[in-house]
Structures are given as C-alpha cells and as structure tokens.
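# step 3/5: fold
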Amino acid sequence: MPFQLDAPLAHPPKPHFAWPLRALAFCLRRVAVFIAIIGVWQRVILRRAHGIEWTLDGTCKSCGRCCENLMLPSGKLASWRIVVWLRRFWHEGVNDFYPKAMFIESEGRSFQAYGCRNWTAEKTCARYTLRPFVCRVYPALALLDRPTPAQHCGYRVRERLRVVE
C-alpha cells in the first residue's frame, strides 16, 4: 500500500496500567501543567539573573520532527528497576510518549528517542494546553546553555542587546 499523506498517524497502543495508576496519571498530567508554567517563569528569571545574552525568536512551523523524535535523557540510574519503571510511567502514562528503538550517546550522556501520541495527522497537538514541560520549553531544553535549533525549526537564537551606560 503506498504512503498516504492524509492517512492517520499510527502510534503504538498505550501501555496498560492498572486503573489506580491511570487515575494517578490523569491527575499528575493536570498538576504537571501548573508546575510547568511555574518552571517556565522560573527559567526566565534565572536566565536574566545570570545575564544570559540570547533570546529565542520565531514560532513553531508544525513540522512535527520534535514531536516524533523527542530525545530524552536516560541517565546513569537507568539500570535501577524502580527508576526504569518510574521513567516509563511518567513518559508513557503521564506524558503520552512512546519509546523508540533509537539511542544516542553524546559527551558521556545517553538519550533515548520518544514519539508523542498526541501529534495528529493535521500537524497539531491534541493536548496542547496540557502539553508536558519539555514541549513548553523546546528548543531551549537546558537551563543556561545556548540552544541550537535545527535548520528546519521555526525558532532562531538572537543576541540580546545590552545597554551600555
């Protein structure tokens, strides 16, 4: 069957968690929005306090590349079973991400690729108001490091003008 552009995205099925965990994920998703909003403003304040000399300009082009290949850290504690289970519950149960079989090692850190179940065929987020923190701060994922948006991304880094007295 040939590839159709208007075909719905085929995301893998959601993992089955018991009903108490599904209810917990539902509540955590809503609480995480408030925490994410506080986190976004905290990042703005901390960057200004540290004298960050860049700002992000532009808007999302809705290409979906970041939604389909979200690289999330898989730290040194990933060998502990409880950490693996908590990470799986958070990413798959609360954030609705699904793991992909792609890992990257860079500068002593490891990352795993995830896709998002909320990315629709119309190139919109089905859960935009409840989107996770990592989606809200993209592409400036690190707190103080200068982001490097991809060429296809609608964002660009602009130098902040300094007033000299």
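# step 4/5: annotate
The longest helix spans residues 19-49.
# step 5/5: archive (pending)
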